[in-house]
Specification:
The protein is mostly helical. The chain has 14 helices and no strands. It has helices at about 1-15, 25-55, 60-80, 80-105, 115-150, 160-170, 175-185, 190-210, 230-240, 245-275, 280-340, 345-350, 355-380, 385-400. About 50% of the residues are buried.
């Protein structure tokens, strides 16, 4: 009798993914698009703010805020997000985590005058980000599986497409957020104040979109309900570090966090000082915005393309492209700082085109180190949700410790 009821349950769940004509629906794809669009809005505000916090004369306040975010992010990935996600699921974990980003944006309305509140909100954001990104990985993985099941495909058949869709749309935030930054600093008299209000509005709209996400329940699960006690989940995270595949992934995850930290901190600072200097900081900040638009367009485009290739046995080629992209960028940095008078800032000042070439290389490589690890983690883990969640926790923890 129990087998019959389980079979009927599986049939009902499969039919729920069909439309009224009996054809596979696009519900799960639309859900993932809605998730991606919400993140796009949230991070149009957050990444634009981060780029500005680490440039200018008070950049040290921004660097401390970034350090606090990553420290609490790593802590939350190991000790907080597991319990929250297991208790309320990804649907409600996502808006809870997103709310901390909106609070962080609110503390930036007064610029760095409220640096004490800025640092407190940075710690809150770090914990919230661990919840948000773990829930995002879980939600997107379930949606991709349900999309595949509704079409009679293997569970991991849609992972590359969904990961590429998510990171492609997400990285478009660099286009919108930094276009706003570039034009506002060029033409507005109170550029920073106007920009932070725009970013606050984007963050609020993004929070609303993520709060309206439909629920995604994993189909064809008969053994695993995903309700593992917190202490067992933490010990399971530790045990996963004895898995050979994960051990090979740890350096990749660590590097992924480091390269993102470099882009937000050192490269944008060099662009701002090289173009604007101390005499015209608004002009330098405008160029930070325009250069990051180039980064965002290329990052988004490559994420779409590489997401489809990673699962189709082309991961070595994709990783090679990412390595070449960052290799070219690092070769330029070594030359500029080691053999050129004035360093990167002088080169950027004399050769503006080099700014956009550097951000283009960074965009190509960043798309690889975002899409490939996330896809490989979900592709190589168990079909059961709880194990994938643990893999994603490890992904977030190692990525954030390196940042």
């Amino acid at each position: 009798m129990s087998r019959l009821s389980e079979g009927m349950k599986s049939e009902v769940e499969t039919q729920s993914s069909l439309n009224s004509e009996g054809k596979p629906s696009n519900r799960h794809f639309i859900n993932s698009f809605m998730l991606s669009f919400g993140f796009f809005l949230m991070f149009s505000a957050f990444n634009g703010t981060s780029n500005l916090l680490t440039s200018g004369k008070d950049a040290h306040i921004g660097y401390v805020a970034s350090a606090i975010i990553y420290a609490f992010f790593a802590f939350g990935s190991l000790f907080v997000s597991t319990g929250v996600l297991s208790q309320i699921g990804p649907k409600w974990s996502i808006p809870i985590g997103a709310l901390t980003y909106t609070i962080f944006q609110a503390t930036n309305l007064k610029g760095q005058e409220w640096w004490q509140f800025l640092w407190i909100s940075a710690g809150l954001l770090g914990v919230g980000a661990s919840i948000l990104w773990s829930a995002q990985g879980s939600y997107l993985t379930i949606a991709a599986k349900n999309h595949a099941f509704s079409r009679g495909l293997p569970a991991d058949a849609s992972q590359g497409m969904f990961q590429g869709l998510f990171f492609g749309i997400l990285q478009l935030n660099q286009v919108v957020g930094n276009l706003c930054s570039g034009f506002i600093f060029l033409y507005a008299t109170s550029g920073a104040e106007v920009l932070m209000r725009v970013y606050m509005g984007l963050s609020i709209v993004g929070l609303i979109v993520l709060s309206l996400l439909p629920n995604e329940k994993e189909q064809n699960i008969t053994e695993d309900k995903g309700q593992i006690p917190l202490t067992e989940r933490i010990s399971a995270v530790a045990r996963l570090h004895f898995d050979k595949k994960l051990l090979l992934m740890v350096p990749v995850l660590f590097y992924s966090g480091m390269e993102q930290g470099f882009l937000v901190g050192d490269l944008t600072k060099a662009i701002g000082h090289g173009i604007g200097g101390d005499n015209n900081p608004s002009y330098g900040k405008a160029y930070i915005g325009f250069s990051m638009v180039v980064f965002g367009v290329i990052d988004a485009t490559c994420s779409f393309v590489f997401g489809k290739f990673v699962i189709k046995s082309h991961k070595r080629i994709v990783l090679l492209i990412g390595t070449i992209g960052h290799g070219a960028l690092y070769a330029f940095i070594i030359y500029a700082n080691g053999f050129s008078e004035g360093g990167m800032e002088k080169i950027f000042s004399n050769h503006v085109w080099s700014i956009f070439l550097c951000t283009a290389c960074a965009g190509i490589a960043d798309s690889v180190w975002n899409v490939a690890p996330a896809t490989l983690v979900t592709h190589n883990s168990s079909l059961f949700l709880s194990i994938q969640i643990l893999m994603l926790f490890n992904f977030a923890a190692w990525n954030d410790v390196s940042g």
